Amino acid sequence: MLTLTGVGKRYPTGDRALTDIELTLPKGQVMALIGPSGAGKSTLIRCVNRLVEPTQGSIRLDGTELTKLSGHKLRHARRSMGMIFQEYALVDRLTVMENVLSGQLGYVGFWRSFLRRYPQEAVIEAFRLLERVGLPHAIDKRADALSGGQRQRVGIARALLQSPKLLLVDEPTASLDPKTSRQIMRLIRELCAERELAAIINIHDVALAQQFADRIVGLRAGEIVFDGLPSDLTSEILTTIYGEEDWDTTPEPMDDEVSGDEATNTAPINPPYARVMSSIEAGAAR
Question: What is the CATH number of the domain that holds 211?
C-alpha cells in the first residue's frame, strides 16, 4: 500500500533529519514510530503527505508517486491520508460538528467549506462518526469547551470523514493523562480494524506502542535502527534506540481509574522505562 524507498530530508541549514528510509506498510497494519526527541519521527510522517518536502527518495501510495505531485493532484492524493495532530488542530470558535465537517475540505473546496455547504451524506457520516468516537452529545459544543481527550476524539472523527486509506498520527497522546491515552490509542486501533486502515503513529510512550501496534519501527538520528514486532523489543534494542537507561528498575504501579477522558489538558506523564519492559514481557507472554 505505502512504500518509502531511500527517503531523506536535509534542511537548508545542512542538518539531516532522515537518511535512506526504507519502509513498506501493507493495508490494515498499525505501525508505531518510536525514538528519542529529534529522531525524525514527525518529519517522516509529514514527508508522507508532503507537509514537509523530502529532499530525496520515493514515496508511493497505492502505486502513485507522491513526490511528483503538485497542485490539484497533490490535494486529491491527500484525501487518502487522514492526519491526526498532537495539538488537535481544531478551530476553537467552531462547534464540534463544524470541526469534523472540515475534514471534507479536500472534497468540497475552500469556499463551500467556508460557507458550511456540505453534502447531506457528509453531514450524516459526521453524525455517525461522532457517535462512534463517543461524542454524540457534544455536536453543538464549541471546541474550546472540550477536554483534551474529547478534542482528540474530534480530530479522529475529522480525519475519518476524509474516507482515508492511511492515517498519519502525530503524538496523539502527548497532552493526555495515562488513562485517556490508552482510551485514545484503543479507539484508533479499533477504527483501523473496522475500516481496514493502515496507520503510522508517532508516539513517545513505548508501552502504548507495544500494546496497540502491530509493528514497531525505531528511529535514532534519522535512521531506522529497529523494525519488528512489539514482542521483539528487548532492553538491548531499547538501548540502541534511546541510549543507556536503567531498563530493569522495579516498575511503579499505576491506578487505571485515576482521571479520565473528562480531564482537561493534563501534562503528559511518560511511564518509567521499567514499566515499558514489564509491558513488553507481558505482551510476549500473551
Answer: 3.40.50.300
